[in-house]
Write a sequence for this structure.
């Protein structure tokens, strides 16, 4: 339902712009850290589809994309202060000719050593609802930076 409402909002904004003047600036806050559900938004922004309809779209991630990691860390009594998680989503062609997605999650955990940060990220990846929804369909790589 939320995706349908978002699509209608984007279409409504597109219908309001495009009069040949300045682009209408839109700041879009994602519902979660960037993930495969958002690939259409990034594709439209990066290929100029939004601009073609008179929209200047800025896509923003939520203020704390490390929340799943922090929830797991609380149970482990690990210090995750200053921890940040960033995500990159890529779209490409599979061997079958269909399109597929890949996600890279970069974890910066300055209070933890590399192995502890990676173990914590892997545990968070196992309980994250988006990871569970896409497991087996989307290639996900966890990297400690």
């Amino acid at each position: 339902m939320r995706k349908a409402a978002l699509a209608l909002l984007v279409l409504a904004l597109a219908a309001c712009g495009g009069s040949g003047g300045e682009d209408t600036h839109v700041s879009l806050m994602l519902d979660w850290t960037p993930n495969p559900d958002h690939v259409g938004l990034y594709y439209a922004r990066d290929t100029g589809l939004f601009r073609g309809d008179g929209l200047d779209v800025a896509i923003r991630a939520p203020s704390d994309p490390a929340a799943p990691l922090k929830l797991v860390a609380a149970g482990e009594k690990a210090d995750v202060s200053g921890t940040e998680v960033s995500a990159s989503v890529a779209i490409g062609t599979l061997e079958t000719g269909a399109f597929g997605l890949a996600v890279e999650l970069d974890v910066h955990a300055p209070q933890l050593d590399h192995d502890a940060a990676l173990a914590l990220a892997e545990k968070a990846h196992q309980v994250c609802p988006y990871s569970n929804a896409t497991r087996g369909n989307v290639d996900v790589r966890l990297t400690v930076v």
Summary: The two ends are 36 Å apart (CA to CA). The chain has two domains: 2-60, 67-144. The first strand starts at residue 24 and ends at 29.
